[in-house]
Write a structure and sequence with these properties.
heterodimer, A: Rossmann fold, four-stranded antiparallel sheet, disordered C terminus, B: ABC transporter involved in vitamin B12 uptake, BtuC, two-stranded antiparallel sheet, globular
Chain lengths: 243, 327
C-alpha cells in the first residue's frame, strides 16, 4: 500500500536537547498507526513537526509525494492533515456548531454549517450542537475535538491522547469511533497512553523513547519486545513465594 | 455566530430617527456633537474590527485617523483635490500604510504587538511635527473646506452647513456600519471570531491567523482614514494634536465600554462617549472626575461594556431577531 504520509529521517533539536532523532514513519489510508512511549519521548513533538508547528532540523515530511516540512500550519491543515491536541483545545465561548465549522470554512466549503453538523453527528454530539463548547463535560470536549478535525475533511488525522482522562465506557466509544474512521479510509496516527485502546485499535505500533524509535510492528510483536517492556510497558513482577 | 439581521421595524424607526435629527435639533452645538459622534462611529467600527473581532489591542488607530486627515488636507492644499476625492484617497493611503505595518507587526502578539503600535503612532506624530516643509509642523494646516457635492440631476449642492454636513457624516457612518455588518457575517468575519477565540486551534484547522488579522487591520485602518478626512474638513484644521494619546484612549473607551465584538455596541458607544463628557460640563470642575469614575466602575463591573448589554436588556429578544453577539 502506498503511504499517504511519510516522515523521513526527522531530527529536532531544542537548544542542546535532541527531541527527535532520525525518526521514520509511514501511514496509509485506512490504517491506524499508534505512537507510544513514556512522557517526554517526543510524541507530541512528532505531531508538531507533521503539522508545521515545529520545523525539523533535518529530514522531511512527505504528504502525497510532496515535501511539506517548510509549510505553514494552516496550509498543512488545508492540504488534509489535521490534528487534535494533548490538552483539550476547543472554541470555548462559541457554540459547538460555530466552532466545528472552522475547518470547513478554511477549506472554502460552500455550506460549512451542514459540514459541521455532519461532523458533530459522526461523533454523537448533534443533540448538543447549540451548547457552548465550554459547557460540555470533559469527555464530550474530547469528542468535539475530533468533530472539529473531521469538519476540515482531512485525509490524515493525528489524534493526541483522545482517550486520556476517560472512563472505560468513554474509551470504548473512542475505540469504536476510530474504527469507523479507519473504515472510512482515514489514515490515523494515534498518540495514546491507554494500552487497551492502543492494542485494540492499532494496525501498527511505533515506540519512541528519548526521541528515538526503539520498536515498530504489529501490536502483539511490540508488546512482546523486551526493549519496549523495559522502556515503557514495564516488567510484571511475579511473586516467587506464591508459586 | 455574529450579527444577524435586525428587525425591520427597529431598523426603520432608527433610520427615521437619525434622519430627522437636524430637523428637531436646532441647537448648533448639539448638532455639532451629533456630527462628531457620527464621525467617531466610523472610527469605532474600524477599531472594533481589530480589538473586538480579532482581539488585537492596536494603539495605532488614532494615528490612522490623523494620517487620513493629513492625506486629505495635503491633497486639498497641494493638488486642489476636493474632499470627495481626498476622502477615498485617505482611505487608500491609510489602508496601504496599515498593510505595510501589519506585514511586520501581525506576526507578533500580546505586549509586543501593543508596544509596536504605540511606537508607530509616536513616529507618525514626530513626522507630522517635524516635517515642517510638508505639514507646517505645530502650526498645522488651517483653512480646510467642505466642498459642494455634485448630485447627478440636481447639480452642485452646498453641504457646508451643519444641517447638511450631518447627512454626509450620517451616510458615512451608515455605509461603514453596512460594510462591517457584511464583513463580520461573511466567512472572513467568522474567521475573525475563531482566531480571537483560539488562534492555535484555528490555524490547526486551516485558518490563516495572519491573513485574517491583516484583513481586520487594513479595513479598520481604511475606516479610520476616511473618518480622519471627514473630521479634518469639518473642523477646518489639521495639526499634530490629532496624534495625541487622548484620541486612542477615547476610541478604546467607545469600543470596549460600548461592547467590543458587536456592531451596535461600539456604534452607540461612539455617540454616548462623545456626548457624555460634554453633558457633564454642568458639573464644572468635577466633570472629568465623574467621567473617569464611570469608566472605572464600568470597566470593573461590566466586562461586556455598558451599551450593548443595555440594548440587550431594553430591546425585547423577539425584536432583535438574533441581534449581534459574538462578544
Amino acid at each position: 500500500m502506498t503511504a499517504l504520509l511519510e516522515i523521513k529521517g526527522v531530527m529536532v533539536h531544542f537548544g542542546g536537547l535532541t527531541a527527535l532523532k532520525d525518526v521514520n514513519l509511514a501511514v496509509s489510508a485506512g490504517e491506524v498507526l499508534s505512537v507510544i512511549g513514556p512522557n517526554g519521548a517526543g510524541k507530541t513533538t512528532l505531531f508538531n513537526v507533521i503539522t508545521g508547528r515545529v520545523r525539523p532540523s533535518l529530514g522531511s515530511v512527505v504528504f502525497r509525494g510532496q515535501a511539506i516540512q517548510r509549510e505553514a500550519a494552516f496550509r498543512i491543515a488545508r492540504m488534509g492533515i489535521v490534528r487534535t491536541f494533548q490538552k483539550t483545545e476547543v472554541f470555548g465561548a462559541l457554540s459547538l456548531v460555530e466552532g466545528v465549522l472552522a475547518g470547513a470554512l478554511a477549506r472554502g466549503d460552500p455550506d460549512p454549517e451542514t459540514r459541521a453538523r455532519e461532523a458533530l453527528e459522526s461523533v454523537g454530539l448533534q443533540e448538543k450542537a447549540h451548547l457552548r463548547a465550554d459547557q460540555l463535560p470533559y469527555g464530550d470536549q474530547r469528542l468535539l475535538e475530533i468533530a472539529q478535525a473531521l469538519a476540515a475533511m482531512p485525509q490524515v488525522l493525528l489524534l493526541d491522547e483522545p482517550a486520556s482522562g476517560m472512563n472505560h465506557q468513554e474509551s470504548a466509544h473512542i475505540v469504536r469511533l476510530i474504527g469507523q474512521l479507519r473504515t472510512k479510509g482515514f489514515a490515523i496516527v494515534l498518540v495514546e497512553h491507554n494500552m487497551h485502546v492502543v492494542m485494540t485499535i492499532s494496525d501498527r505500533v511505533m515506540v519512541l523513547n528519548y526521541g528515538e524509535t526503539i520498536a515498530e510492528g504489529r501490536p502483539a510483536e511490540v508488546r512482546a519486545d523486551p526493549r519496549v517492556i523495559e522502556a515503557y510497558l514495564g516488567v510484571q513482577k511475579t511473586d516467587a513465594r506464591a508459586g | 455566530m455574529p450579527d444577524s439581521k435586525p428587525h425591520p421595524i427597529i431598523l426603520g424607526a432608527v433610520l427615521a430617527g437619525l434622519l430627522i435629527i437636524p430637523l428637531v435639533v436646532r441647537d448648533e452645538y448639539y448638532l455639532h456633537l451629533f456630527i462628531v459622534s457620527a464621525i467617531f462611529v466610523v472610527v469605532a467600527l474600524g477599531l472594533n474590527l481589530i480589538v473586538g473581532y480579532v482581539g488585537q489591542l492596536s494603539l495605532a488607530h488614532a494615528a490612522f485617523f490623523a494620517l487620513g486627515a493629513y492625506v486629505s488636507a495635503l491633497l486639498f492644499f497641494n493638488l486642489k483635490w476636493s474632499m470627495w476625492i481626498g476622502m477615498p484617497a485617505a482611505a487608500i493611503v491609510t489602508a496601504a500604510v496599515a498593510f505595510a505595518l501589519g506585514w511586520v507587526i501581525l506576526r507578533v502578539r500580546g505586549h509586543r504587538f501593543v508596544i509596536i503600535t504605540v511606537a508607530f503612532a509616536e513616529i507618525m506624530r514626530l513626522v507630522a511635527t517635524n516635517w515642517v516643509d510638508l505639514t507646517r509642523g505645530f502650526m498645522g494646516l488651517p483653512g480646510l473646506q467642505i466642498p459642494a457635492l455634485y448630485v447627478p440631476g440636481i447639480g452642485a449642492v452646498d453641504v457646508s452647513s451643519k444641517e447638511r454636513f450631518y447627512y454626509v457624516v450620517l451616510a458615512a457612518a451608515l455605509l461603514s456600519f453596512y460594510i462591517c455588518y457584511r464583513l463580520v457575517r461573511s466567512s472572513v468575519g467568522r474567521a475573525f471570531v475563531l482566531v480571537r477565540e483560539n488562534e492555535v486551534l484555528a490555524e490547526s484547522l486551516g485558518i490563516s491567523a495572519f491573513r485574517t488579522c491583516m484583513i481586520a487591520f487594513v479595513v479598520g485602518a481604511a475606516l479610520a482614514g476616511t473618518a480622519g478626512a471627514l473630521y479634518g474638513h469639518y473642523i477646518g484644521f489639521v495639526s499634530p494634536d490629532l496624534f495625541n494619546f487622548s484620541y486612542i484612549t477615547i476610541m478604546l473607551i467607545m469600543v470596549i465600554l460600548g461592547g467590543k465584538g458587536t456592531l451596535i455596541g461600539p456604534a452607540l458607544g461612539a455617540v454616548v462617549f462623545t456626548f457624555l463628557p460634554e453633558l457633564l460640563r454642568e458639573a464644572s470642575y468635577y466633570r472629568m472626575v465623574i467621567f473617569a469614575s464611570i469608566l472605572v466602575i464600568a470597566t470593573l463591573f461590566m466586562p461586556r461594556g455598558i451599551i450593548f448589554p443595555l440594548v440587550e436588556h431594553l430591546v425585547p429578544r423577539r425584536w432583535r431577531k438574533g441581534h449581534d453577539r459574538a462578544a
